[in-house]
């Protein structure tokens, strides 16, 4: 996608949502190299352990790439470079250096024009993650406490949603409010309880919370091949694909998970 072909407002919205998503899941370390930033927190999450472009970034220079490779090598990690499809694309050049592409993910956008109906009493909101919320997250995504530490770095207003079944936390998500934009993160449902519409309840509760705080729009990121999740978000009003992104892996034997 050629950024020059888009209006400034479209480009601005893409960058607004992109940077809000980063603020909603901050890395422990960020080191700037030119118009790019190397993010690191030691977890398996690629967004927070990859080289990312900054607003207005042009092509990835050899010096910046080498600096990133040194940064990650010094931490025992494989270099991963995150490419946004609306920014300058360096995929062909990286492939020529032995990098490979993986992990197509979509950034979706919604206008919050009305409340989500049908949110039951088993779905609750909290200003902190409950023990049950964290237990489900860590069962599905064990990371040695990195996620808990990440939550402490979020500076914007934060809300946790959970839906229970027979008293057990079965579905979770959290939302971060950046100005009038809600960022939805960490949506997950216990596999035992999937297919019951619990994620709709959980995410819908966050949307309603954000509207009460004055939010008029929302964004989230979802793996492109996750058709059930994309269908859910479509029903919740996330009907605009803002942009996609992918990861370029350096030619090393190990890899990280999503």
UniProtKB/TrEMBL annotation:
Keywords for this protein: Acyltransferase, Transferase
Domain N-acetyltransferase, chain residue ranges per copy: 123-253
InterPro entries: Acyl_CoA_acyltransferase, GNAT_dom, YpeA/RimI_acetyltransf
Pfam assignment, any one: Acetyltransf_1
Recorded coiled-coil stretches: none
Source superkingdom: Bacteria
Segments passing through the bilayer: none
Gene Ontology molecular functions: acyltransferase activity, transferring groups other than amino-acyl groups
Iron as UniProt keyword: no
Name this polypeptide is given: GNAT family N-acetyltransferase
Organism: Roseitalea porphyridii
């Amino acid at each position: 996608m050629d950024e020059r072909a888009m209006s400034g407002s479209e480009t601005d919205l893409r960058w607004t949502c992109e940077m809000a998503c980063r603020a909603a899941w901050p890395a422990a370390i960020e080191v700037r190299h030119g118009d790019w930033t190397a993010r690191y927190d030691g977890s398996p999450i690629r967004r927070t352990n990859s080289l990312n472009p900054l607003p207005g970034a042009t092509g990835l220079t050899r010096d910046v790439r080498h600096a990133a490779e040194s940064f990650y090598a010094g931490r025992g990690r494989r270099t991963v470079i995150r490419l946004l499809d609306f920014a300058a694309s360096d995929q062909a050049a990286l492939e020529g250096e032995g990098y490979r592409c993986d992990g197509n993910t979509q950034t979706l956008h919604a206008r919050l024009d009305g409340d989500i109906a049908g949110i039951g009493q088993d779905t609750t909101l909290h200003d902190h993650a409950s023990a049950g919320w964290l237990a489900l997250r860590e069962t599905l995504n064990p990371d040695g406490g990195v996620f808990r530490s990440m939550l402490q770095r979020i500076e914007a207003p934060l809300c946790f949603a959970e839906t229970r079944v027979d008293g057990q936390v079965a579905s979770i998500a959290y939302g971060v409010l950046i100005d009038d934009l809600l960022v939805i993160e960490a949506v997950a449902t216990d596999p035992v309880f999937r297919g019951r519409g619990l994620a709709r309840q959980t995410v819908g509760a966050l949307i309603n919370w954000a509207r009460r705080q004055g939010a008029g729009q929302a964004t989230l990121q979802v793996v492109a091949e996750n058709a059930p999740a994309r269908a859910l978000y479509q029903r919740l009003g996330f009907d605009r694909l803002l942009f996609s992104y992918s990861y370029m892996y350096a030619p090393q034997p190990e890899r990280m998970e999503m």
